[in-house]
Design a protein that fits this description.
381 residues, four-stranded antiparallel beta sheet, 13 helices
Length: 381
């Protein structure tokens, strides 16, 4: 509670989300119970190279309150208010990390909205304190990997995650990168690290190429600048190419469905720049994420695999024996098993079953090793 400023005005009609949410208002902070989703607004832009006079603009919040809950929304949804920028930016990161850690311990998913994308670092620090290897997925036209020897900014936050010691980042995936916006150095470094990316063109050809990356992630970080200007009007220098409004909502819905995903960040919502339409789209992105969350199948295959069909594909070369696939009876989603060193068993338990799609299975039937299998195998060694 000490980190949050309350929501100042709550206008709601009967039956809408403003009537449904547990909202932090003046003198009243909601009590937690296990499970649910919590909204957190953090208007912190200092590491983006921008000077923003008015640091707060929560029109997205009031657009969200006017929406109606879905049919299956039986879970707790909180609006915890605003984490205002600290004296130093490290104070803001610390506040985000502390809040995310407590929420995740209570199985509540933090949805962080607002500032520049380096705030992903604060979310990551919250997971770091739980001492488990994690996967991050960014939805962004840029890879933002940069160089670790340069000062920490929103443009190079990924390289700064990698140099943390101990490093709990197992995999980083990107959805939506565009070749004109990424240097050769960044693309090559991504490949050397066995990280994954799904270019915007690949996504537009077949959404299913992105879905396994969402299902494999603990943290999803969305840069709203990855949405095309015609669908997200307001910001100066906004990209004419990018995701359509319905596509970005599709992405957040699939992220919500993922049993593994434990945090969503929606970043670069600039105060006083973005139009009402942009704020309304952010509200709908959050709505579709929660809609997905309420439809989780609980079918990430750890432990008993009675509810799965097992497929073992013998490989002629390149793999010692065979590649094993599992298909869920509940959702018809696919995973593949990647062997890992036995001495690291507990550390890698959540990572040797990799979300994939039917095409990966078909590829292996043609004696081709799927890229996701090979990249995961290299990281597990």
């Amino acid at each position: 509670e000490m980190y949050f400023a309350p929501v100042e005005t709550v206008a709601s009609n009967e039956g809408t989300l403003g009537d449904f949410l547990k909202i932090h208002t003046t003198g009243s902070f909601p009590e937690f119970s296990k499970g649910g989703v919590a909204l957190i607004y953090v208007p912190e832009f200092r590491n983006s190279g921008k000077t923003i006079a008015n640091n707060s603009d929560d029109r997205f919040r009031h657009a969200f309150y006017k929406l109606f809950p879905g049919d299956l929304w039986k879970t707790n949804i909180y609006d915890l208010g605003t984490i205002e920028p600290g004296l130093n930016i490290e104070d803001t990161y610390f506040a985000i990390a502390t809040v995310c850690k407590e929420l995740v311990k209570n199985e509540i998913i933090p949805v962080v909205i607002g500032g520049s994308q380096d705030l992903t670092y604060g979310v990551y620090q919250g997971f770091e304190q739980l001492e488990q290897l994690i996967n991050i997925c960014s939805v962004d036209s840029k890879l933002d990997i940069g160089r670790p020897d340069e000062p920490f900014t929103a443009q190079n936050y990924v390289s700064h995650l990698l140099v943390q010691r101990p490093c709990y980042l197992f995999n980083f995936a990107n959805i939506g990168c565009q070749a004109p916006m990424n240097g050769k150095h960044e693309m090559e470094l991504f490949d050397k690290l066995y990280f994954d990316y799904c270019r915007l063109g690949e996504f537009n050809t077949d959404f299913k190429r992105a879905e396994p990356h969402l299902r494999n992630s603990d943290i999803l970080s969305v840069d709203v600048k990855s949405i095309r200007n015609s669908d997200f009007p307001g910001q100066k220098g906004q990209n004419p190419n990018g995701f359509y409004a319905d596509q970005i909502c599709q992405i957040t819905r699939y992220a919500g469905i993922s049993d593994k995903l434990m945090s969503l960040g929606i970043f670069n919502l600039e105060p006083d720049q973005d139009s009402d339409t942009a704020h309304e789209l952010v509200a709908q992105m959050i709505w579709y994420f929660i809609e997905g969350y309420t439809q989780r199948k609980g079918d990430f295959p750890i432990g008993s695999k009675k509810e799965y069909i097992r497929f073992a594909v013998h490989m002629d070369e390149g793999v010692e024996d065979e590649i094993v696939f599992y298909k869920s009876n509940k959702s018809e989603r696919w995973w593949m098993e990647v062997p890992y060193p036995s001495q690291n068993g507990q550390r890698y338990l959540r990572h040797h079953l990799v979300p994939c799609d039917f095409e990966d299975y078909q590829r292996s039937m043609k004696n081709e090793i799927p890229d996701l299998w090979w990249k995961t195998y290299q990281k597990l060694e």
